[in-house]
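name: query_chain
kind: protein
chains: 1
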Amino acid sequence: MGLYESNHLRLQRLAGNLARLNGTLVSHVADDCQLTLAVVERAPYTSQLQMTYLLPERVPDLRLRVYHDAGLVEALGPGGVPERELGQRWLQNMMLNKWLEYCAERGHRFR
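structure:
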């Protein structure tokens, strides 16, 4: 859960109050690619977001679930083999954590 808490804090640093996000937000930084954050689904205690980094050759993106009441953010991935799912989820969330850190260091902010 510590990793999910860290993801929440890092995403909150980029986007502010995650429970109040609406629509699609865009961050532009000089000498970097455009970063978008779109609200895909909203429920009373959770939201699903799509974070996309627009690169010239490919478009990496992640679907995220925000647990507003618990202050957690989880990277969602495709369902896989149950025995491997925990390891895959750990890797996806570690990648999200590093990506959020990188975006903040580059100066990205959704406002």
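note: The chain has one domain: 2-106.
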